Amino acid sequence: MIRAYKFLMRPTVGQTQALGEMLRDHCSLYNGALQERRDAYRHPSRTSIRYGMQSAQLKEIRAFDPERQGRWSFSSQQATLRRLDKAFVAFFRRVKSGETPGYPRFRGVNWFDTVEFPKDGDGCRWDATPHDPVTRVRFQGVGCVKVHQHRPVVGKVKTISVKREGRKWFVVLTAEQDRPEPLPPTGSVVGIDLGIANFLADSNGRFVPNPRHGRGNADRHEAAQQSLARFPRVRRDKRTANHRRAVEKVAKLHGKVRRQRLDHAHKTALTLVREHDFIAHENLTIRTMVRTAAPKPDPDRPGAFLPNGAAAKTGLNRSIQDAGWGVFLTILHSKAASAGREVIAVDPRNTSRRCPQCGHTSADNRTTQAKFHCVVCGHHAHADTVGAVNVLRAGLVRRNAQQG
């Protein structure tokens, strides 16, 4: 199996400058390849350009511009071109499926933050000597950079990536390793219901509070955004020092909230995986859930619109995004696969409206956000717990059907 590791790098001033130039030049290569594809499509012949054609031009590009393109790893530049090709493959897939296409866009220097090296030893070298207290990673054109390795890397390193987050630099490794031994069975099964008032409720009646990291840092975010908004929009090379500090402060606050969400998701998922052999959850389409409210034209007044609850929907969307359900479910599935646990997603429809005692399904059963009271048998419980119980039952039924 493949496992990823992310470590903080501690480059010198010169290495930081070289890393920035590497990102800039790879960004220029990406944008140039994108422009070539756009021009070819707009040509009357409608020429189609593929990755192989652009990769074959790399030798000439490196010879033409040795100062900016010739100094970097050839394989990393191929990976950048392959990244563009994947963007076009995804674009055509969305077109065929009827989704919003999302044509690949040009990347600014601040939005191009990752360079990948497809193979350890080709333009890069991960050097973790057991007897050396300092771990280093070597990049072509940059040198040997110190790495804060907080845990050992198990397995053979396959790919190495450089990632910039604000002012910090990280190295991301993927290592191929044997499948770990599964955790001992516990004989426990559980269903979980994700929410906003509580981050999740399980079928055993336990609740995990919603930390609301975004709301907790909202005041500081608002102040930082207001400070940034005072500066006029100018080119990046003409920004003042105060402007750059304001941008970095906003990025730093966003990074803090992102790390808090990840930490909470990892700890919550790890607890579930350690305690239960089988976990069922709702198959949530989060992208659909956070769509903005559709406008309602007023038939009596052309050009006017009726109230559509957009303000309330915006607040709900913000709360859903603050909870980070998608990140949590991705981490849960990854940890469960490593631990030999089983995770199944079920249809979420009516899970909070169906009585677990008599099976009666009605919107009247859920009197409030937290209260469930069956209008037929009188069963009452917390609505989120009822939803988790129904999710568990649906998950067990689906598992038995798959095994049968």
Explained architecture:
There is one protein chain. The chain is an alpha+beta fold. It has two domains: 175 residues, no CATH class; 182 residues, no CATH class. Helix content is 43%, strand content 20%. The protein contains eleven helices and 16 strands. The strands form four sheets. It has a seven-stranded antiparallel sheet with strand order 2-6-7-1-5-4-3. 22% of the residues are buried. The mean pLDDT is 91.
Determine the fraction of residues in helical runs and give it as a percent range. 40-55%
Mean pLDDT: 91
SS strand fraction: 15-25%
Strand count: 16
Helix tally equals 11
> Cα-atom Rg, whole angstroms?
26 Å
Counting structural domains, the number is 2
Q: Give the ordered list of helices and strands.
A: EHHHHEEEEEEEEEHHHEHEEHHEEEH
* Spatial arrangement of strands, main beta sheet: 2-6-7-1-5-4-3
Low-confidence stretches: none
Largest sheet: 7 strands, antiparallel
Through-space gap between termini: 28 Å
Helix-and-strand structural type:
alpha+beta
How does the overall form come out from the CA principal axes? Answer: globular
